Amino acid sequence: MQDKQTVHQLNNDYVQRLRASEVAHHAQKLALSKQRRGRAVRILIGFAVALVLCVWAYGKNLASLHQINQQTEVAQKQLSTAKAEHGQLNQKVKQLHNDDYLTQLIRSKYLYSKNGEIVYNLPSNSK
């Protein structure tokens, strides 16, 4: 057996230009893939920043909403107490227009008596 090479490479001008073209093409592909990778990284960083800003804004809005809901609950309680007080005051105003109630109120509160009438103030039984 012979170990001689039967294939010989040509080393002419055409082959050298072809190899140089292949090396340039390979270098150009590497540069292009590096540019694409860089662009993809910048896009991903932009999306990450936008996502962080959205999450931050959402959290801030959620906290603001919680605070507003608490304020609304407090205002609703104040409104209900004011409505109840308003209803009681309206009832008192209606009663003050009633002559019998007004006479009774004046006699009991201010100890008013008619001519010749004696009013005895008895202590109330409180235990």
UniProtKB/TrEMBL annotation:
Residues in coiled coil: 65-99
Transmembrane segments: 40-59
Keyword check for Transmembrane: yes
Lineage: Bacteria, Bacillati, Bacillota, Bacilli, Lactobacillales
Listed name of the protein: Cell division protein DIVIC
Example GO biological process: cell division
Zinc-finger recorded as keyword: no
Matching Pfam families: DivIC
Keywords from the named record: Cell cycle, Cell division, Coiled coil, Membrane, Transmembrane, Transmembrane helix
